[in-house]
Amino acid sequence: MVAMFGRAAADTAADDDVHVAVARFGAELYGLALAITANRADADDAYQSAWVDAMRHWDQLRVESKRRAWLAAIVARAARRGRRQRGLWARRIQPLRDGLGLAAVMEWDATVATAVARLSRRQRAVVALHYGQGYSLDEIAQILRCGRGTVRTHLSRALGSLRRSLRDDDA
């Protein structure tokens, strides 16, 4: 009997932690999914899938200070996996319209939104994580499971592409 009540109390505490995490990071994580997928339908799917994955492994994360990066990694992975599974290799020229950070800036500047939407998935992810959500290059490398040099390369190429695209649009 005691074990049963102890388990119920642990489940309630975990549920409270999840609710707090959703309230605290939900919009930011949705913005990340949207930045990577470049469309609402795929972002919705990735966001939901990521939370299901997170719930499945919630008890594995013991250090609460790492929760934001852990959740961002799950969302980024779900967004990339979703695009790959759906065969969305063709570029989408649909401007990004929701989320926080970079996506919020892009809402009032369609030129920037279009330029970002033209980037590769990896480049969009790096730009969204670094400029949209303030992650360091080391944190991005952990989230995307790649080397710091790879992150720097994607960021450099993305910025070059954005400069060219925005310069061409101004002309």
Strand percentage lies at under 5%
Describe the biggest sheet?
A: none
The count of β-strands is 0
- Average pLDDT works out at 77
Uncertain runs are 1-10, 87-100
Order of helices and strands: HHHHHHHH
Q: Which overall shape is indicated by the principal axes computed on the Cα atoms?
A: globular
Count helical runs: 8
How many distinct domains? 1
**Secondary-structure content class:** mainly alpha
Overall helicity:
over 70%
What is the terminal separation in angstroms?
74 Å
Rounded to the nearest angstrom, the radius of gyration is 18 Å
Which descriptors would you attach to this protein?
171 residues, mainly alpha, disordered N terminus
